Amino acid sequence: MPALSEIITALEQAYPPALAESWDAVGLVCGDPAEPVTRVLCCVDPVAETVDEALDFGAQLIVAHHPLLLRGVHGVPADTAKGGLVHRMIREGVALYCAHTNADSADPGVSDALAEAIGLRVTGPLAANEDGVTGIGRIGELPEPEPFAVFVQRVADALPATVPGVLGAGEENRPIRTVAVSGGAGDSYLKQATAAGVDAFVTADLRHHPAGEHLAGTGPVPALVGLTHWASEWPWCAQASAVIGHAFAGNVDVHVSTRCTDPWNVRAERTSS
């Protein structure tokens, strides 16, 4: 029965904290490193729904991608949303560990999981660190070219369903073979995707003006596939689960969260002309 500190060691070997951006907040949020852990929940967001799921599962540890306390705080009173979660986890004996931009940059990391789900063979990072291996995003290729409309459907079929769905911007019959992906909000990497010469760029939280200006650019530019933030990073949960499972085979039961924590839960289509 491993201690929490041993599981943290395994996670930090896979997702070194040194890879995190300077503004980020990664690591152990609450929990006693000496306490034993037999069940773990892996999720994207540490929110009330996933804390409920962890308690239902009997987990002593939540491994989340997004930080709970990203910006500096001076207190965690129980009558605030985040403070209430901290108090609840401590009362229930549930630790919280977050791997954010260190998991984004790691090799393999968040974007490798997204690329694998889509069926890409990864050839390298999109925005590489000095080592040329780690970094934000990944570039990959499909086994065979396929029309853009077919590729957009491929992405939709590979990821969990969300209310907003998957959107594509590009010529429907354009052949797609090389693809850049970036889990999470990625429109700040539009220039890198264009410079890489890929046929399409798959990411989340694409904003109106950056996307429109990208598509109006001179020369060939990648077609765009827009995802919700949660869906783009959810494949990482299975990757993190495997890290723990391989390190502590037979001693730790790891569950991948199935609760969609996208904020969008209602969709409406115009019914009148």
From TrEMBL:
Gene3D superfamilies referenced in this protein's UniProt entry, alphabetically: NIF3 (NGG1p interacting factor 3)-like
Alphabetically ordered keywords of this record: Metal-binding
Coiled coil: none
PANTHER family tied to this protein: GTP CYCLOHYDROLASE 1 TYPE 2 HOMOLOG (PTHR13799:SF14), NGG1 INTERACTING FACTOR 3 (PTHR13799)
InterPro entries to which the protein is assigned, alphabetical: DUF34/NIF3, DUF34/NIF3_sf
Record has Metal-binding as a keyword: yes
The family this protein is said to belong to: Belongs to the GTP cyclohydrolase I type 2/NIF3 family.
Subunit structure: Homohexamer.
Pfam families attached to this UniProt entry: DUF34_NIF3
Protein name as it appears in the record: GTP cyclohydrolase 1 type 2 homolog
